[in-house]
Amino acid sequence: MAKKIAGYIKLQIPAGKANPSPPVGPALGQRGLNIMQFVKEFNAATQQMEPGTPTPVVITAYTDRTFSFVTKTPPNTYFLLKAAKLEKGSTAPGKSAPVGRVTKSQLVEIAKTKMQHMNANDVDAAVRMLAGSARSMGLTVVEG
Q1: 37 contacts: CB under 8 Å, gap ≥ 6
Q2: What's the gap between Cα 6 and its chain centre?
Q3: Cα distance between residue 111 and residue 124, in whole Å
Q4: What are the residues facing 108 on neighbouring strands?
Q5: CA angle (15 as vertex; 137, 6 as ends), nearest 5
Q6: In terms of DSSP H, where are the helices of the chain?
Q7: Could you tell me the Gene Ontology terms of the biological process aspect for this record (predicted)?
Q8: What contacts 24+ positions apart, CB below 8 Å, involve 117-122?
Q9: pLDDT tens sequence across 110-136
Q10: Which of the two residues, 41 and 97, has the higher pLDDT score?
Q11: pTM of the entire structure?
Q12: Which fold has domain 76-142?
């Protein structure tokens, strides 16, 4: 018999750096889940990733106060900023001068990494989605 699901909790936590402080503690505490158990399991699951990488996680809380979780790939913006070697995107994209640039080949690499969690049928569609995200962050997409 399958466990009864009490709900889902979606969080974005830096890889390998989960701790019981907010947002993790309160989100799990209100469902009555074991916070330290999640922190240990999450940090173990993300230890092979670059420390501090923002990692989306979906936690499934069950009525018997147990849980399971699935980690996803980091957000597109994280990869785009990393490819452009920037700390943050433009504050006024489209109005001010572009703050950086990414190449088509970099977008293809990001698309291949993110493909499993993107809403795209093929790599070309994923690249177009990433190019749109890049433009909205004030990045210029160049050939190469």
Answers
A1: none
A2: 24
A3: 8
A4: none
A5: 100
A6: 24-29, 35-45, 76-83, 104-114, 123-136
A7: translation
A8: 117/72, 117/73
A9: 777 777 777 778 878 888 888 887 887
A10: 41
A11: 0.74
A12: Arc Repressor Mutant, subunit A (1.10.10)
* Token pair 């785009």: residue: 80
Using CA atoms, how far apart are residues 135 and 80, in angstroms rounded to an integer? Answer: 10
Residue type, 118: M
Do the beta carbons of residue 9 and residue 58 sit within 8 Å? yes
Q: Other CB atoms closer than 10 Å to residue 91's CB: what's the count?
A: 9
* Token pair in block for residue 8: 């889902």
CA nearest to 127, candidates 109, 140, 101? 109
DSSP category for residue 65: S
Q: Supply angle C-alpha 120, 124, 125, rounded to 5.
A: 30
For the chain, domain boundaries? 5-71, 76-142
Q: How far apart are CA 64 and CA 42, in angstroms?
A: 20
**Class of 5-71 in CATH:** alpha beta
Of the ranges 56-70, 81-95, 120-134, the best mean pLDDT one: 56-70
